[in-house]
Amino acid sequence: MGTVTTKQGDDFSINLYVTNVETSGAIQAANDLATTMAADPVSTVDVQNALDTYNAAILVDITNWTIESEMRWCGTLTQAFTVTKPGSPLNLFTLSALSADTQGWSPRSYDCDVEFTVPGEGVRSTNTFKIVVQEDVTNHAG
Known about the structure:
By secondary structure, the chain is an alpha+beta fold. It folds into 2 domains: 3-18 and 61-140, Immunoglobulin-like (Sandwich); 24-58. The chain is 27% helix and 38% strand. The chain has 4 helices and 9 strands, in the order E-E-H-H-E-E-E-E-H-E-E-E-H. Strands 1, 3, 4, 7, 8 and 9 form a 6-stranded mixed β-sheet that branches. Strand 5 (82-84) and strand 6 (92-97) form a beta hairpin. Helix 1 (24-38) packs antiparallel against helix 2. The longest helix is centred in the N-terminal third of the chain and has 15 residues, at 24-38.
C-alpha cells in the first residue's frame, strides 16, 4: 500500500479493497484480458467486458470476516480505527477516525496494518504501511 498522508484534526477515511489475483479464475481472466488487448483491431467493448470479468474474478467476499486496524508510533497505540463494510462491493471496507480523534495525532509518520480474521482460515495481516500526519496549518495559524 505504501504511504497514506492525512492532516491532523481532519476526518480520516480510506477505502480499501481485498482482492486475490492468484485464483485460477483470476489468472484465466488476466490471460483473456491480455489476449483481448493484443487483438488487432482492439475492440473497446471487448476490452471492457474482459476487464469486468477480471475485476469480478479477483473480488474476495469479506462479508463474514472480522477486520481490525490500529495505528502505532514506536509501538504505542495511537488509534484503533473504525472499520465499516458497506456490503457493496463485497470486497470493500473503510478505515476511519473522526476529527476529534485525529486532533490528538502528532505530526509524524505512524505504522499501521490491517488484521483479518477469516472464518475457518485464521488470522492474516497486511504488510505494515505508513500513515504520515501533517500539521493542520489553518487550524494552528496564529
